[in-house]
Design brief:
The protein is mainly alpha-helical. The protein is about 75% helix and about 0% strand. It contains 12 helices and 2 strands. Helix 2 runs antiparallel to helix 5. The longest helix has about 45 residues. It is globular.
Length: about 280
């Protein structure tokens, strides 16, 4: 610990540089691996939510039949085609898709690298409270990615593919639009699911309290709807509802997390006060 305190500003920058290099190297390596398997990735991952055999659609159909809606929730067709209208379209989307896959897979390692840089600068008590931070951040990110991929993506594709203002119009989506839409949904959900972690640390430093969050709950609902509209390219009511409900649930979980942190903080302060009083006696 003494050696870490004696490090100069340039030493810290050098250490940060190597953490960044290792994190970027992990993303690059996994991106290259994904690029050489891009055909399999597009067939089994990228285009999977656009198939009526996707698990989400099967479960929707089973749910509809179970609650007496017959085949109302069954997706029998997705009437659209994916085209590439630019000469570099397929190549650039191959790189984009490979990068997104590489980033998602490497995310836990990237977080671990940055945490390895931040952790030595924390006090012993702060290290104790932040124990498991990498696991929590990685878990919430991957949970958000799975939510975006298995729920939001197929719902958005299904809505946009079946929405029509005239029979004259044929849905022929460009590959750039398709990949950018699905990627933004998946990564956007992964980032938004970090909200409880953010609230945890803000509560630790005293910037947020559960009372404050409850007071601004109505404002938060409006903010969630705005954020949902931003990360949902289609901005349709169905997709907006699908993304907003889990975000509101995350907000309520964050209130609980904030209350739990504050309760523990007060207990520690009371324990320290008792120790001081006992020491004075």
């Amino acid at each position: 610990m003494s050696e870490e305190k004696e490090m100069t500003f340039l030493d810290h920058l050098e250490e940060l540089r190597w953490h960044v290099i290792r994190a970027l190297l992990a993303v690059v390596i996994l991106t290259i691996v994904a690029f050489f398997n891009v055909e399999w990735i597009f067939t089994n991952i990228i285009f999977a939510p656009a198939s009526i055999d996707f698990p989400t659609f099967k479960y929707m159909c089973q749910l509809g039949q179970a609650i007496g809606m017959q085949d109302a929730l069954c997706v029998t067709e997705l009437p659209f085609k994916v085209q590439s209208r630019m000469m570099t379209g397929q190549f650039m989307m191959s790189i984009t898709a490979a990068f997104v896959i590489g980033l998602v897979v490497a995310f836990p390692y990237v977080v671990a690298e940055f945490w390895a840089f931040v952790r030595p600068g924390l006090e012993t008590k702060e290290r104790k409270f932040s124990k498991g931070a990498v696991l929590a951040i990685s878990f919430l990110f991957l949970l958000g990615v799975f939510f975006g991929y298995f729920l939001l993506c197929p719902m958005t594709i299904w809505f946009l593919a079946t929405y029509s203002i005239s029979d004259v119009i044929v849905n022929e989506f460009d590959i750039t639009s398709y990949v950018s839409t699905t990627s933004s949904l998946v990564l956007g959900c992964g980032i938004l699911f970090q909200f409880p972690v953010v609230i945890y640390f803000l509560t630790k430093v005293g910037m947020v309290t559960p009372q404050l969050m409850r007071h601004y709950r109505k404002h938060a609902i409006v903010g969630i709807l705005v954020v949902g509209a931003v990360i949902t390219p289609s901005a349709d009511p169905f997709s907006l509802t699908v993304i907003s409900l889990p975000l509101y649930l995350l907000f309520e979980i964050s209130i609980f997390t904030s209350a739990l942190v504050l309760r523990r903080k007060r207990k520690e302060e009371e324990a320290e006060l008792k120790k001081e009083q006992a020491h004075d006696k």
